[in-house]
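Example S7 (C-alpha cells).
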C-alpha cells in the first residue's frame, strides 16, 4: 500500500509528506527533501477550512495559521506526530474546544492536534473517572450523574475539554472547598515533548505529574486523565445577594468563604439599572438545601433585591447554557473576546477594583460580565499555577466583547487589559493565563517568580527542543 493510500482524504488534500527544507507539507508528489509522515490511525489534513478553524479561537483576535491539523484516531497518533515533530523541529499544540482567547493553542506553521477525536469516557467509578483529553466536562457530568457521582469542580462554562482545563487550572464556585480542577486530577497519561508516552500520578513519576497540571502545555500533552468524583447532589438552591457598596460586598464574600455557608460561591460586578455606578452581587448555591432554608443572617446585602432560584443539580452546573444559546443566536459568540483574568491578593483587592471601576464603562466591556469572587489558596497544590501569596485571593475577570468588532476597539481593550494587569501585578496579583494580554518573556519570568528556574528546568527536561505549545510565548 502506498503512502497516499494509507492516509484518509479530506477535501481531496491528505498530507503525505513533510518538506524538511521548504518547511511545508505535501499533499501530492515527492521531492528529494520530503520525508513521509508516520502511519496514522486518524487523519492529517491541510485543507483551507481545517487550517482556518485551527487558526482561530473564542477570542477571535489572534490568528496563527498552522500547516496541518491532526485528527488522531488513537493515542498512538499523538505519540507518532510529536516524535515526528520533535525530530524535524516542527511545533505542535493540542486544541480542545478552542475556548482560549489569545491564540494559546495556535501554532504558526506547525501542527495543531484536535483532541475532539479522543473523547471516550473509559470508566466511571465510585471515586474517580477515566476519560480521554477531548471529553467535555458537560459529558463527564452527565455520565457521572447517572452513577450518583460528580466531578467536584466545574468552570462556569462546562463545554470545555478535560485536557484543556487540566493544562490551565480550572476555577469555579467550589474551588473554595476543592481547589482548582487541576487539584482534583489523580493520574494522567501524557505525551512529552520528545514523544514519550508516560503515565504519572502523585505516587509515580510525580515530578512530571505536578509539572503538567497547570503547566500550560509546555511539558507534555494530556491524552487521558483520571479525575476525582464525589457524591452528586440532587438539587441546588441558587442565591443572588445584591450590594451597592464594594466594601460591604468584599466583607461578606470573605465571611461566606470562611464559614463555608454555601456549597458554591461566586460573584459579579454589574452596572446599576439607573447607570449611576456599579453594584455587586454574590452568586452562590446551597446543594441539597434544607426545607425553608433562607439566606444567612447578619450580612450586609439588600434583602429586598434577593433572588432565590431552585435547580436540579445538573441544571445548576450548566446554568450558562441558555445564555450561551442566546449569544450564539444573535451572533455575539462570534465577536472578538479580549478577556482578562487576574488573581488578586485579598488585602489589595478593594484598592485595585476601585481603581479599575472608577474609569470602566459598559463600552469598555462590551457589556460582558465582570467576575469578582474569593477563594482560599491553601487547597491549591500545583506548583506552576501561580496565585497571590496570601490565604485568600479574589478572581477578577473582565470578560470583554468587542462591540463593534473593529480592530481599534480590540486594540483599545487589549491596552486596557495590559493596564489592569500591571496594576494587579504591582499589588501582588497574578495572571490567570487564559485571557488576552501581551506578555514578554521578562513578564513570564516575573509571573513565575521564584518558580521560574524550576519551570525552565522542566521545559528542558521534558521538551528540550521546545516544540510544544508555543502560543503562550513563554519561550522564544
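Recovered sequence:
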Amino acid at each position: 500500500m502506498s503512502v497516499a493510500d494509507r492516509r484518509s482524504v479530506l477535501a481531496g488534500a491528505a498530507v503525505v509528506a513533510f518538506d524538511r527544507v521548504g518547511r511545508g507539507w505535501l499533499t501530492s508528489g515527492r521531492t528529494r527533501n520530503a520525508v513521509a509522515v508516520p502511519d496514522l490511525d486518524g487523519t492529517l489534513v491541510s485543507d483551507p477550512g481545517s487550517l482556518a478553524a485551527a487558526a482561530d479561537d473564542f477570542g477571535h483576535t489572534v490568528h496563527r495559521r498552522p500547516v496541518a491539523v491532526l485528527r488522531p484516531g488513537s493515542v498512538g497518533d499523538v505519540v507518532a506526530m510529536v516524535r515526528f515533530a520533535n525530530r524535524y523541529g516542527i511545533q505542535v499544540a493540542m486544541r480542545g474546544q478552542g475556548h482560549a482567547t489569545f491564540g494559546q493553542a495556535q501554532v504558526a506553521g506547525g501542527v495543531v492536534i484536535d483532541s475532539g477525536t479522543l473523547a471516550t469516557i473509559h470508566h466511571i467509578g465510585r471515586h474517580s473517572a477515566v476519560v480521554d483529553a477531548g471529553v467535555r466536562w458537560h459529558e463527564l457530568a452527565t455520565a457521572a450523574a447517572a452513577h450518583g457521582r460528580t466531578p467536584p469542580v466545574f468552570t462556569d462554562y462546562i463545554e470545555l475539554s478535560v485536557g484543556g482545563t487540566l493544562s490551565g487550572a480550572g476555577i469555579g464556585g467550589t474551588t473554595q472547598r476543592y481547589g482548582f480542577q487541576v487539584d482534583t486530577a489523580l493520574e494522567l497519561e501524557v505525551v512529552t515533548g520528545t514523544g514519550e508516552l508516560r503515565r504519572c500520578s502523585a505516587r509515580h513519576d510525580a515530578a512530571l505529574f505536578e509539572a503538567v497540571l497547570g503547566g500550560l502545555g509546555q511539558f507534555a500533552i494530556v491524552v487521558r486523565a483520571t479525575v476525582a468524583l464525589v457524591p452528586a447532589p440532587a438539587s441546588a438552591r441558587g442565591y443572588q445577594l445584591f450590594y451597592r457598596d464594594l466594601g460591604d460586598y468584599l466583607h461578606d464574600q470573605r465571611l461566606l468563604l470562611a464559614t463555608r455557608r454555601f456549597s458554591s460561591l461566586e460573584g459579579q460586578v454589574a452596572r446599576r439599572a439607573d447607570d449611576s455606578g456599579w453594584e455587586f452581587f454574590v452568586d452562590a448555591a446551597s446543594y441539597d438545601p434544607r426545607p425553608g432554608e433562607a439566606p444567612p443572617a447578619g450580612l450586609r446585602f439588600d434583602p429586598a433585591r434577593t433572588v432565590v432560584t431552585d435547580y436540579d443539580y445538573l441544571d445548576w452546573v450548566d446554568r450558562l447554557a441558555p445564555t450561551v444559546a442566546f449569544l450564539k443566536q444573535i451572533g455575539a459568540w462570534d465577536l472578538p473576546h479580549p478577556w482578562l483574568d487576574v488573581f488578586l491578593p485579598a488585602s489589595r483587592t478593594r484598592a485595585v477594583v476601585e481603581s479599575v471601576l472608577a474609569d470602566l464603562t459598559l463600552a469598555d466591556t462590551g457589556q460582558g460580565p465582570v467576575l469578582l469572587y474569593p477563594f482560599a489558596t491553601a487547597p491549591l497544590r500545583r506548583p506552576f499555577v501561580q496565585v497571590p501569596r496570601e490565604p485568600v485571593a479574589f478572581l477578577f475577570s473582565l470578560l470583554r466583547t468587542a462591540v463593534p468588532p473593529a480592530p481599534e476597539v480590540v486594540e483599545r481593550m487589549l491596552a486596557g487589559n495590559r493596564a489592569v494587569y500591571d496594576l494587579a501585578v504591582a499589588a501582588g496579583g497574578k495572571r490567570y493565563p487564559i485571557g488576552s494580554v501581551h506578555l514578554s518573556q521578562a513578564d513570564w519570568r516575573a509571573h513565575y517568580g521564584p518558580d521560574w528556574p524550576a519551570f525552565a528546568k522542566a521545559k528542558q527536561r521534558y521538551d528540550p527542543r521546545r516544540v510544544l505549545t508555543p502560543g503562550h510565548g513563554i519561550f522564544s
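Notes on this example. The chain is about 30% helix and 25% strand.
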